[in-house]
Design a protein that fits this description.
This protein has two domains: 3-20 and 171-453, TolB, C-terminal domain (Neuraminidase); 31-163, Rossmann fold (3-Layer(aba) Sandwich), CATH 3.40.50. The protein is built from five helices and 31 strands. The chain has helices at 3-14, 47-55, 61-71, 95-100, 147-163; strands at 19-20, 25-30, 36-40, 75-77, 105-114, 117-126, 133-142, 172-178, 186-192, 199-204, 208-213, 219-224, 231-236, 242-246, 252-257, 263-268, 275-280, 286-288, 296-301, 307-312, 319-324, 327-333, 340-346, 352-359, 362-369, 375-377, 384-390, 396-403, 425-432, 438-442, 447-453. The protein has a five-stranded antiparallel beta sheet, with no helix packed on it. A five-stranded antiparallel beta sheet has the order 2-30-29-28-27, with no helix packed on it. It has a five-stranded mixed beta sheet with strand order 4-3-5-6-7, with helices on one face. Helix 3 packs across helix 5. It starts with a helix and ends in a 7-residue tail after the last strand.
């Protein structure tokens, strides 16, 4: 390791201090009226501990669960103010009452204090039966700091019971936050999927780009320009250590972890043109995957850890291609929507991908279904949607979206993402993979770019 590398690592670690920010809030903009109705009743507590709970300013468990289910796009949680009565136990449930409201699922819960811990219990009740039937229940004894995580865990359990799909409410996201801070304009941040518990991982006066989670959620790979040119960093989140620094001449960027966690794909221009490379993380050996005079970048892995989707301009404009890492002659185009297509992100089950489609002066997020060959636009109401990332369960995706103060988006499509004028803010958006549900995360103090969703195995 060179003296420069050691100094650089110390700089990164010094800037790693955990800076907390105000939480963001999800604002649903489209699709909630078509979702399945459900009621999450405020959790009850013993009268003798009510005062202690209030003074402790604990998280509102029921509100978090309701928000999670609503944010999935599959449930419409009935506002508490609309409930004529709030049952506290199973025997209080009157099925005919809920039937008139069009609700056949109700969540009841309670919170108590045991020693210095909190005991959270809940029941998921089917009100279409008479008498009402408990179809799921559980209890947790936890420390106060784990209240929000426990609420997300309950949401995951309820979501999977009702849909058969694993929930993603306990996952984390990472993104780059751009602010007006003169000293540190760029920050790599992580947060809960809903924007709460935001933490700064790294701050820099130079651009940070393209964060990517390891499959176990313990590391992030990202691009930094702290040294004056691009370098690729792999950083462990628990102890703040730098595991790898990839710093070849010219461009180093677009990292992507293989699903098995054994390899990292990225793009380099050390030979002039941008080409794809793979590092074996156990040996640090680097293998070149593409070797031509075109720009090949933005790799995304298929589930087998043997095939990559990537962006290439070998046909004249950026399109998405697929290549086998063991046979670089087996490369073929897989995107065909009008205009250009780039920045692919493959679903964890490998059945579809989302990508950025540029066409007629606008930029959308589009989807390609590998099973049917169908391509469709998911964000037709967006002007400059970018960098999509699919949720681990494959039913949602996040992306950055530019709010243009200038009415013409065409002025900016040929510019680099980091050069978009400061008066146009980039926000974090959330949408269902069928395009029917959309929401924005509001409350950030700056522009959010390059969002990426952790795997199901990632936790706090």
């Amino acid at each position: 390791m060179t003296i420069f590398q050691k100094s650089f690592i110390l700089l990164i670690i010094w800037n790693f201090s955990l800076f907390a920010f105000s939480d963001m809030k999800i604002e649903i903009t489209h699709g909630i009226n078509t979702a399945h109705p459900i009621a999450v009743i405020p959790f009850i507590n013993n009268e003798n501990i009510t005062h202690e709970l209030n003074n402790d300013n604990i998280e509102d468990i029921a509100s978090i669960i309701a928000a999670d289910l609503r944010n999935s796009g599959k449930f419409n949680t009935l506002p508490i103010a609309y409930l004529p009565y709030q049952p506290s136990k199973l025997t209080d449930i009157i099925p005919t009452f809920w039937e008139k409201l069009g609700i056949n699922t109700v969540v009841l819960g309670a919170i108590n204090i045991k020693n210095e811990n909190y005991v959270i219990s809940y029941q998921l009740i089917d009100t279409s039966n008479n008498p009402a039937l408990v179809i799921l229940d559980n209890q947790y004894e936890i420390e106060k700091k784990h209240l929000r995580y426990t609420a997300h865990t309950i949401s995951d359990e309820i979501f999977e019971k009702l849909t058969g799909i694993k929930g993603v409410f306990c996952t984390r996201i990472a993104y780059i936050l751009y602010t007006n801070n003169i000293k540190y304009a760029y920050e790599l941040c992580t947060s809960d999927y809903d924007g709460h518990n935001q933490v700064s991982i790294c701050r820099s006066s130079e651009p940070l780009m393209s964060p990517a989670w390891s499959p176990d959620g313990k590391k992030l790979a990202y691009v930094t320009f702290a040294s004056g040119h691009s370098e690729l960093i792999i950083q462990t989140l628990t102890n703040r250590s730098i595991d790898n620094i990839i710093q070849f001449p010219n461009h180093n960027g677009a990292p992507a972890w293989s699903p098995d966690g054994k390899k990292l794909a990225f793009s380099l221009s050390k030979t002039g043109s941008l080409n794809l490379y793979i590092m074996d993380l156990s040996s640090n050996n680097i293998q070149q995957i593409t070797s031509n005079r075109y720009n090949n970048t933005e790799p995304s892995w298929f589930p087998d850890s043997q095939n990559l989707a990537y962006t290439s301009d070998q046909g004249g404009v950026p399109q998405v291609y697929k290549i086998n890492i063991n046979n670089n002659r087996d490369s073929h185009r897989i995107s065909w929507l009008n205009g250009s297509n780039q920045k692919p992100n493959i679903s964890m089950d490998g059945t579809f991908m989302v990508m950025v489609n540029r066409n007629k002066g606008k930029q959308y997020i589009s989807k390609l279904n590998f099973l049917t060959g169908e391509e469709e636009t998911l964000t037709a109401d967006s002007v400059l949607a970018d960098t999509p990332s699919i949720s681990p369960n494959g039913i949602m995706f996040m992306y950055s979206s530019i709010i243009l103060n200038n009415s013409s988006s065409e002025l900016y499509l040929d510019k680099k993402f980091t050069n978009i004028p400061d008066n146009n803010q980039s926000i974090l958006s959330l949408a269902s993979i069928d395009g029917k549900f959309k929401a924005h995360l509001n409350g950030s103090t700056g522009s959010i770019r390059f969002p990426t969703w952790s795997s199901l195995s990632c936790s706090y």
